[in-house]
Amino acid sequence: MVRDYVRLATAYHMLSPAKVAVLKDLGDVRTANGWEEFRRGDEANLPYWMALGLMREGYVELRESSVSEADVGRNLLVERSLRGRDFSNVKERFYVEVRELIKKLEEEGTPQSYLRASKLRSSLVDFVRIRLRKMINAAFLSSKPEEMVERLLPDERPLFLELANEIQEWVKEVTN
Q1: How many whole angstroms separate alpha carbon 91 and alpha carbon 9?
Q2: What is the rounded CA–CA span in Å between residue 82 and residue 78?
Q3: Which residues are CB-contacts of 61 (< 8 A; sequence separation ≥ 6)?
Q4: Is the pLDDT of residue 150 over 90?
Q5: Which residues, 6+ apart, have CB-to-CB distance to 140 below 8 Å?
Q6: Are the C-beta atoms of residues 17 and 46 closer than 8 Å to each other?
Q7: Element (H or E) spanning 166, and its range?
Q8: How far is CA 33 from CA 44, 54, 132, 151, 173, in A?
Q9: pLDDT tens, residue by residue, 125-148
Q10: 69, 93, 129, 154: which is deepest, by most CB within 10 A?
Q11: Is the dihedral of CA 161, 163, 166, 169 positive or negative?
C-alpha cells in the first residue's frame, strides 16, 4: 500500500506543469491544451516528465530552479531546528527532484559523483526520518489530522492520514 502511495505521488508530480524555456524548435507538441507549436525562445508549461526528457536532450531549460545538493543540506538543517509539529517549507516536488539528482550523479559514473550521490541519499534519509517522526507525533496528538495535511508534501499526506486513522482506532480500542 505504501508503495502505491509513493507511486501515485510520483505520478502526480510527473504530470504537474513545469515552466520551461525552449532552446531549440520543438515543432508541434501535445499538451493539456491540445497540440501546440513551440519555437526557440518560447516559454511553455509542459508536464514535468516531458520537460525532464526534453531538458536531457538539450531542447528546453527549466525556468524553475531544481533542488540542489546545497538545498537538501539546508532543508535538513531547517527541519532539524524546527520542533514539535512544525514542518519546513520545501518544494512540492522535493522528493522527486532529489531522486532525479541522485540518479543523475550516479549516471555520471565517477568516484566523486558516486560519493556525492551517497552523501545526498544519506541526507535525504535523515530528512525523511525527521519528518516521519514529526508525522507520527502529529498523528498521535492531533484531534483533527485533516488540518495537518496541508503542512505536508503530497508524498507524505496519504501516509500521515493512514497513521492518524490507525492510531485513533488503536487508542479507541484500548481505552474502551
Answers
A1: 14
A2: 6
A3: 20, 21, 23, 55
A4: no
A5: 167
A6: yes
A7: helix 157-175
A8: 11, 18, 38, 31, 51
A9: 999 999 999 999 988 887 777 778
A10: 93
A11: negative
Amino acid at 109: G
Cell numbers found for residue 51 = 520537460
Q: Where in the chain is the domain with CATH 3.40.5.50?
A: 2-62
Query: How much is the pTM?
Result: 0.84
Give the cell for residue 99: 531522486
Query: What are 18's strand-pairing partners?
Result: 46
Cell numbers given for 29? 507538441
CATH T-level fold of 69-175 = Methane Monooxygenase Hydroxylase; Chain G, domain 1 (1.20.58)
Only one residue has cell 507520527, namely 136
DSSP 56-69: HTTSEEESSPPP-H
